[in-house]
Design goal:
β18 and β19 form a beta hairpin. About 45% of the residues lie in helices and about 15% in strands. The protein has about 900 residues and is an alpha/beta fold. The protein contains 27 helices and 29 strands. The strands form ten sheets. It has a four-stranded antiparallel beta sheet with strand order 6-5-14-16. Among the domains are: about 170 residues, Alpha-Beta Complex (Isoleucyl-tRNA Synthetase, domain 2); about 160 residues, Orthogonal Bundle (Isoleucyl-tRNA Synthetase, Domain 1), CATH 1.10.730; about 130 residues, no CATH class.
Amino acid sequence: MLEKHYDPKSIEEKWFKRWEESGCFHSEPDSEKEPYTMVIPPPNVTGMLHMGHVLNNSIQDMLARYKRMQGYNVCWVPGTDHAGIATQTMVEKKLREEGIDPDTLSREELLRRIWDWKEKFGGIIIQQLRKLGSSCDWERERFTMDEGLSRAVLETFVQLYRKGLLYKGSYIVNWCPKLQTALSDDEVERSEEPSFLWHFRYPLVDSDDYLVVATTRPETMLGDTGVAVHPDDERYQHLIGKMVELPLVGRKIPVFADKHVDMDFGTGCVKITPAHDANDFEMGQKHGLDFINVMDRRAYMNDAVPEKYRGMYRDECRKATVADMEAQGLLEKIEPHTVAVGRCYRTKDIIEPYLSEQWFIKMRGMAERALVPVERGEIKFHPQRWVNTYKYWLENIKDWCISRQLKWGHRIPVWNCLDCGHELCEVEPPAHCSKCSSENLKQEEDVLDTWASSWLWPFSVFGWPENNKDLSYYYPTQTLVTAPDIIFFWVARMIMAGQEFVGKVPFKDVYFNGIVRDLQGRKMSKTLGNSPDPLDIIDTYGADAIRFTIVYQTPFGADSRFSDDSSELGRSFCTKIWNAFRFLQMSFEGVEADPAWADHEQDLIGRWILGRLAQTTSEVEQDLESFRLASAASRIYNFFWGEFCDWYVEFLKPMIKSADEQTAARLLGRTRYILDVCLKLLHPFMPFVTEEIWQQLEERSEGDYLMQQSWPEVSPSWIHEQDQKAVSLIQEIITGVRAVRKTNNLPGNAELELYVMGTDEEHAMITTNQSIIARLAKTGDIHLGTNPPKASAPLTLTGMNAAVDLTEYLDVQAELAKIDKKLAKLEKEKQRLEGRLHNKGFLAKAPEAVVEKSKAECAELERKIKVLQDGRIEMEKLA
């Protein structure tokens, strides 16, 4: 017998341990079974579980458990990302707290300390995912800097290098002064922010005249090496080829023409700083300008600027240059202006366009190839709207800056010979120069972008570049579940990598889950204090509760809203499931279930519930196949709570009381079968509570688990429209009578006489099932085709008229007030529908079926209103 109250803590740890120890999560290649492979989006090794992880991993686990039950050989690979920037930053912060300056440590010593930290504290999130119930193949856990994956990263670099797809050069990069490293375009968050446009006068050489330039970045003027105007701008034709003297610096710089200048921006004269602006960089190359970098790696002014400004931070220098220009009479005006600002995705520091020598991957060819499988449908995006976002990014792609000025990461496998200058690129460290045989070699100091390892994730976790059994069996994977904000960082690059290095796309379906927001619609963050700790929620409500709730509340591909107590929904459902099984145990105590129950003719209630079970099973399966998990959760929730518990169990109670031994055995067999199917449908969503109950549903063998059972198949032959119609009619009558009883505060034992005016078919259904109605609605005589007495309360039923005789209990004025309230509600709904049907736009655009449905709904409302109005007239006669 189950405990009286459901306690998730006592069962969750027990079942996860048993599943894992029994090898339920582990997969090996099996030629007899079709694989279903997923790779977890590897969380940062520094990460802690948050609600986004809960949603993403709950979805993945539901798919994994569902596919296992369908008979697939499921392999869900877990792991963590070394998170170059985040991890090194965290360890350096801890070192400073200990009084150690990380800049004084050698590369080897800093890396040793980072590895020590990783071994002690890294990967906590993996343990947290276990508490959620994630059924990953934990024996296959990988780390992006483990030996195998590190070799894969180096192998891809060497391959790209030898194909001529890698190059090194001085270019403008996105520089984060706080992290002191370059970032790719995708790692920059761009937004518009209020600022100013400063208009400066630049004096012409050998003239008393000047031209006016407009700039949003006064501090970079110290690195100006030219002024550009549009060749068609008649205002400045006479200045092209002349020189101006750069204020505050004294450097003479040329005025030149370039078609890239926007004549309508500012004054039409643009200061050119080739070392601190991407567009200026291109103009500088084109026109042979000098490249003067005026800042150091921390965004402090360097020795290339006049002495006064050296050592100033860029913001301080901005104020100083503006003040000095004003003091010299060279500040013409300042006006408000909105500027596009790029910020580091991690530190939120303003990005500095910075001239720096970096490594780049040529992306154009790979991007063009990566468009094809998505456009052809070989890779399907769910929701499909993300295809346009994907296409836009690939069609406008830039080369990928993959070098990072860090120590923690995959060090670039390039060596330079210090004797002859030859460059070598090898997976294994070379012993000597291949050109001059010198052993005097120096390796590149930079490491690779973290994404340069995670873009290989779908195949590197299976041992690539070795062409082994795992790789050939599990790759390509089937499904990727991820957030849309990394469609550029990760999804697109994985597709490119799969095609480039393995010759196959990495997955077939990509499901983009939404963002978990608070109840106000804000994105959850530590700063806002609106991000609940999932472990606290699991501790309070249980893992099943948070899993079910988060998926139930997240529509297909959309964002969801969540708060600390949202999981009450899931916990209440767990309790409902628990209590339903306890009812079964107590009600059938001592009864031996008849395994051949289905061979016998079923009563109406049995046919109805089995038909609804068959429909629900089919619909849940369709939803899961199309990644509509919220819909699937809603269907099984509504069936189990609304139909099985609220109705079937109620119908069942009087049946059990009057059943003989044989009938009771058949009722138990049928009910246990229904519960068994429900537990299987629910298992992907709520694995712990369903496993606990399933184990006690009947005697199980050692090592027999629900998660290993087959997905249920309920015969559609149980579905009969007439049975569904009959039970719906019974439910409406019972609900209507109960509502009248409650509204009029009538005694629970009062047998109310029922009057029904319906079709012959409806009358026949009521006659056949009169005993059920009488038991559950507590009615006396049921009068068919007979008008009710004047002192009656009408029931609002679909398609027919009915009333309950209240002669003995009636308060006329109270009844009139109730009827008026119902009429007001129906009239309001009718007006809404009529407004829609009189709307020419709606009639022109809406599908014909939708218009007809609205007309039918309006007609039904008119009928209900007429019934109530007639009832009101009759009621008034009693006043």
